[in-house]
Amino acid sequence: MTELKYISGFGNECASEDPRCPGALPEGQNNPQVCPYNLYAEQLSGSAFTCPRSTNKRSWLYRILPSVCHKPFEFIDQGHITHNWDEVNPDPNQLRWKPFEIPKASQKKVDFVNGLHTLCGAGDIRSNNGLAIHVFLCNTSMENRCFYNSDGDLLIVPQKGKLLIYTEFGKMLVQPNEICVIQRGMRFSIDVFEETRGYILEVYGVHFELPDLGPIGANGLANPRDFLIPVAWYEDRQVPGGYTVINKHQGKLFAARQDVSPFNVVAWHGNYTPYKYNLENFMVINSVAFDHADPSIFTVLTAKSVRPGVAIADFVIFPPRWGVADKTFRPPYYHRNCMSEFMGLIKGRYEAKQGGFLPGGGSLHSPMTPHGPDADCFEKASKAKLAPERIADGTMMKLSSSFKTELQSMGQLSLSNTLLLRLHLKR
Ligand SMILES: [Fe+2]
After folding, report:
1. The Homogentisate 1,2-dioxygenase N-terminal domain covers which part of the protein (predicted)?
2. Residue positions in the annotated binding site for homogentisate?
3. pLDDT tens-digit profile of 323-344?
4. Which of 130, 153, 287, 402 is the most buried (most CB within 10 A)?
5. Is-contact 7 14, C-beta < 8 A?
6. Active-site positions?
7. How far is the CA of 224 from the centre of ligand 1 (A)?
């Protein structure tokens, strides 16, 4: 695979054209009477036309055929996704999942879309207010199929196996310990190279932002320059047998046929794009005196609600770092809080749970449900000599990262009942 190129920066106004078609990007206007190379101009809006400049998002795509050239959408099999949070009785217990099983390619071919399973969620998809957490469990590339989500942004966290993601804006390679965000409406198709697994945080109706830094200052946590945007790439590919565009609309799946690949955008410009980020670039802030800062210091991206300081969801990581606090119980403190916390593990082991929480699994702690280190961890940490120590280094791998999402405003995360996976109550 030749190395892919990217544009660096978060939320910038960018412009890109496939080098095979120099001059494809119109100059001085968005919608010429005739575009260079007779391309079609198409705007993709990620915000209301009238949003303030600071939140206004749109891109102009110059493509071989407009997206509208497709047959009507039809309702299709819904697989394992849902947005109905009333299917299962609520459960305030701490819940933990073993690693979600990936189907064997020798038994059944499953691609990214067929392999989507909704775990839990909250809020209301129709009023664009809430979120869902899914896992994807697949073993086969999407073949002449693409997907787009009309309901919100998808933050994709591969845990096992890399993803080659074709988008209308170009190609991205996303490996475990990297994340990517495919924003609302963007078409994409995913190639995989082995039995592949990962997590998805979907937020309805809002976009992910970098958190404000307050007194931290202008630098730190996830720095804007480390976010990478694909460069324009197109294929002029006819698909005589039909290309399938799958759409998630109001939580339901629909499919439409067309005769060409949707990845026919020769040039684009704008500030509404997919992007990826390597979690190794996260600059960790922590206490260097005593006690803990709250885990919000580990926020990579946030999806803000309309209440100041309160997120619909925060994407938070616990990366490898030094622990140096004096006279302090160093593992995460016991606590109860007003948020739901879903946690996944990319690799290594989670510092507060020395056994039983494995990469590719998950846990859910509901609002005000008590949680904290297990008894062994408490014993050891209470007696430990407090020297500087590495935290969260993996046992097999150099790096380990766990992530969790925190829900602050949408009430409680409710479980889906579509997931035919093993659910374990932790005692
Ligand atoms: Fe917690």
Report:
1. 5-279
2. 350, 371
3. 999 999 999 899 988 888 888 8
4. 130
5. yes
6. 292
7. 27
